[in-house]
Amino acid sequence: MSEVSSILIIAQRDLLKFLRDRLRIVSELVFPIVIIAALGGSLQASIGRQVGYDFVIFTMTGVLAQTLFQSSAFGIISLIEDRQNDFSQEIFVSPVSRYVIIFGKICGESMVALAQGVGIFAFAVLYGIPFTMEQIARMVPTAIVICVFGGSFGVLLMANIRSQRAASQVFPFIFLPQYFLGGVFSPIQNLPLPLEIGSRISPLRYAVDLMRGAYYTGTSEFPLTVLDPPLVTLALCGALFALFMVVGTWMFARAEANR
Length: 259
Known about the structure:
- The chain is an all-alpha fold.
- It has helices at residues 2-19, 22-51, 55-75, 78-84, 87-92, 98-127, 133-158, 164-181, 193-200, 203-216, 222-225, 230-257.
- α6 crosses α12 (230-257) and α10 packs antiparallel against α12 (230-257).
- It starts with a helix and ends with a helix.
């Protein structure tokens, strides 16, 4: 119970910080909404009939997964803020497992990302994208998995970054290629071999494919939009989460011990 309480306290702190930052709330909702409406709508008008599925829906599922994954990962930048104001030193000397502390940070940023996901979902409904109760029932737990997966990836990236400035430079370099290699905006079924290799090592690919699997399962568009069976993708996400969590936490804890 003490470990659960520690996780909830750390998670609550990050969620409250987000809710008090109105500019961040607005800015992180505007970008995905614009991408869905502008890019998805333009692609649907130009090539939607040729590919055999609605490009607005295709873009929505990709952007939703990308937002959840990236927001959770980028939110772990608060570890750097905590390191700079010595808050991390205070929590790391507490009698709580370091994995509990890191998982609490991931849970907090996952809650923040899910709040953004609710905003994207509300916009999609208003935009006229159809959802069935079965699709929603699959997408909700999928969203949670993607958030936790993204948070673990953020821990791995942030483990040895010393400043927010460095993090701001590293994150675009890490994530921008994944927008295309992960298939957020465009189909990636027939990539050249070098790009296929890059796509396979891109964590965002699996987040996007998992969300599309949740939406398109049971529809005629499934073989056109989903790359791998959802259960296979889920297993890969679980394995990568465990790897990122263990390695990232170990690296971050070692950096703290050497300060």
